[in-house]
Amino acid sequence: MVFNSLTFVAFFIVMLILHNLPFSWKVKKINLLLASYIFYAAWNPPFILLLWLSTVIDFFVGRALYTQENKHKRKVLLVLSLIGNLGMLCFFKYGGFLLENFTQLVNLFGMDFHPAKPNIILPAGISFYTFTTLCYTVDMYKRKSEPVKKLLDFSLFVTFFPHLVAGPIVRPPQLVPQFETARSATRQQLLQGLLLLSLGLFMKVVLADSMLASPADTVFNAHGPLNTLDAWMGVLAFSGQIFFDFAGYSTCAIGVASCLGFVLPDNFLYPYAAIGFSDFWRRWHITLSAWLRDYLYIPLGGNRNGRFRTYFNLMITMLLGGLWHGANWTFVVWGALHGFYLWMEKIVQHFSTLKQAAMTSVSSAEIGVLGVLPGELKTKTVRNFLLAMVTFFFINVTWVFFRAPDFHSAWQMLTAMFTHIPNGQVLLSTLSIIKVSVIVILLVAFHWMMRNTRVLTVAAKMPWWLLGLIWAVLILLLVWSQESSSSFIYFQF
Amino acid sequence: MTNSPFSKAGILMLVLVIVSLTSWECYVRSKGFETSYDDNPALWADKRADVYEPADQSTVFIGSSRIKFDLDIPTFESATGDHAIQLACVGSNPIPILENLAADPDFKGKLVVDVTEVLFFSTSPHNVETPLKNLKYYKDRTPAQRVSFQLNHLLESQLAFIDKDRLSMNAELGNLHLHDRPGVFGEPIFPVEFGRVRFNRQEYMTDHFVTDTAARNQVKGIWAFFAKMSKDPPVSGPKLDSIFNVVKIAVDKIKARGGQVLFVRTPSSGEFLFGEKMGYPREKYWDKLVSQLQCPSLYFLDYPAIAHFECPENSHLSQPDAILFTNEFIRILTQEKGWKFRNLPAVVK
Questions:
Q1: B237-267: pLDDT as tens digits
Q2: Which residues contact A178 (CB under 8 A, 6 or more apart)?
Q3: What torsion, rounded to 10 degrees, do the Cα atoms A382, A385, A387, A393 define?
Q4: What one-character-per-residue DSSP string does A459-493 give?
Q5: Which of B7, B142, B167 sits opposite A191 (nearest CB)?
């Protein structure tokens, strides 16, 4: 089920009541686990079997990896686990894509091969829970942390409904210890959680679905050349939509977990105020970028083997990060563009003093995919704002490949954005242009204002009446939008 | 905790939300709004699931908006004893739904197909978007969506302010009528009192709309706008033959399973009817269709009792006329077309 549905509201109320009844901690955990399975099965019940399979195999393989002393057996176990997890992901997510590319390739060499198009349904959240279980397996192989003692705790770690289908991608040490001792939310946690849930739903329902989805869809679904203004408005609309949609989901997830007394990691930190592309990846889908850093970039060698190898590793990480988002070459190009931006940034840094500054301020909380945030970039100067706007501009260019259904559409969009096309289609109404402009300007301004703080920190400092008023406006706009429960964009990834 | 603003803020939020929503509900009711339902894919899918009811207890209707307005479901149900399952979609071609029912071996019931020529004999992909979207939703709907639908029904049946087409944020913003750049296609906005939807998917125009000349002219203007927008000539030749063929295959499948199919041309009037006669001459479209299908049909102009209606906006019947039409429609079905209903045995003259 999705957070923005009445089913979830009913489900969540029941969960809150059950979680606060005087049951033993074990019973409460079983409740949470069953609820998580119901949450997942409410989409497509048969896919629950995949989740069980993944959970059980990884629990026992993880334990064996940790306890097994024989190196060869450990390697065999690791490979089997990786094949199992990634094989499942490849089949469901990339099966059609691989077959399509294979067909094109062999036809290129003169073979007349036309297989039937496979009808594979992508299980919701498979990319997310596969990464969650993969990191456990790798951690056990490296003996980075203790194996989870109980299958119940491990199942709950994998399946816990707030993060199950679209993250944040959690690591065992972040969540498993929270299942080991009894916990319920304090009144403060409950209220903060409800505030975050309201904010997340507002972002998703009001801003992403009600305001920005239509202009973005109109422009990206257009056939034929576009007017420059419409092309830019479409891209900006999608830029806002993808943020509000995904960050909205993460905010809901963190809020829901907080209402139950659990803490999930932040996933977004005002990414459109990023200064530079490494800063962007410290702020956008943080748990994925950290995962890619720890389980792909660093194992590939990171920056330990010279500059050329660093650049190569960086590009591989971004290409695979792109492919993770979807089985389409456009996502690979999206990743490649980000890889290229990071290359350029590294080259610039190499010849500037920023690199020096980066080395002097180390705060573990701020380490993203590409290391620490240079202290110089924390200040809100006009220069930094301009740099943030340049970054935002280039990020918008990448969204064209992320959203366009194919390269032809992406090229058409880029052509319209950067050249004047006589008689380009004029698509968007004045109202749509106003909506996109106002929301995107406010979005960027809000990100800039908030870039060094957190929403709950700001809320806690507000006068209670102002906070109550803002909270009420969020809820009323949510009701007024009257949007039905559409899926989150990241569910398809 | 003592300095935390969250508790007080939460209480204030609750008070403000409750007061605002209550006031809003009172306000919209004072403006004459009644509860109305969002005619979305969830509501359509709910009705689609009913087509498996026994053939002697239900009749399925497909088509465009006319049958939604013109068939008065309470009248039909009380007179016949049948459950009327309304699957018609506004502004769309019903052929995808006809094909879907034909391909479903479990559907063996009575089917009425409403024909609005400009939509039925159309090859425009735009005209099949809604049926295809509804069919996809029906096929893919999840248990969670079914529960949400039931909960939403509870709210929609009680609260008048839940009215996406008229009272939502986007609907209200649309009422600003901002001037667009030349070349922008602006979806016309219908008056709020045209096209209210009941839970059974029957649409109706309010009494106020029927008496409001300006509102009726506004809708007539919208029909003229659509007519002007349609640049392609009416379909003919092999494309038309292909439509006949597709429909015949579907109808034959249903009939082969013991199902009954009837085609109906519901009333229109004034300039709209004149334009339809010009663009889609009866002998070239309707007559050819029904002669090829060899199944019962009903063209409103052939029956004096339903040929005289003046549609308020030239294309759909008012509520009182819909009741008259439905009664006569039932009479024709039973007395002339041999259809049997639980409450009304067939009396073929």
A1: 889 999 999 999 999 999 999 999 999 999 9
A2: A262, A263
A3: -140
A4: HHHS-HHHHHHHHHHHHHHHHHH----PPPGGGG-
A5: B7
Band of pLDDT at residue A360, cut at 50, 70 and 90: very low
Dihedral (CA of A191, A197, A200, A204) sign: negative
Residues B274, B20: Cα–Cα separation, whole Å: 49
A427 interfaces chain B, CB cutoff of 8 Å: yes
- Pick from B5, B170, B178: which is nearest to A467 by CB? B5
* Ramachandran angles phi, psi of B299, nearest 5°: -110, 120
Q: Is residue B54 part of a domain?
A: yes
Q: Do A430 and B181 touch (CB under 8 A)?
A: yes
Residue B19 lies in a domain: no
pLDDT the model gives residue A18 = 93
Residue A487 — very low, low, confident or very high, per pLDDT cuts 50/70/90?
low
Strands B203-204 and B196-197: antiparallel
Pairing of the two strands B83-86 and B110-114:
unpaired
Residues of chain A numbered 156-195 and touching chain B (CB < 8 Å): 186-188, 191-192, 194-195
Helices (H), B2-113: 6-30, 41-48, 65-70, 73-80, 95-102
CATH number for the domain that contains residue B144? 3.40.50.1110
Please compute Rg for chain B using Cα positions. Answer: 22
Instruction: Look at strands B110-114 and B260-265 and give their pairing.
Output: parallel
* Closest residue to B184, CB basis, from A8, A428, A471: A428
> Per the omega criterion (within 30 degrees of 0), is the bond before A168 cis?
yes
The DSSP result for B292-309, as a single string, is HHTS-EEEGGG-HHHH--
In a domain, B185, yes or no: no
Structural domains counted in chain B: 1
Q: Hey, are the CB atoms on B6 and A460 less than 8 Å from each other? A: yes
Structure tokens at A316: 């591989």
DSSP H or E segment with residue A247:
helix A228-259
List CB contacts (< 8 A) between B162 and chain A.
482
In a domain, residue B23? The reply is: no
Distance CA A359, CA A371 (A): 9
B189: its two tokens: 């906005």
Range of the domain at B75: 41-175+190-335
Structure tokens at B337: 């077309």
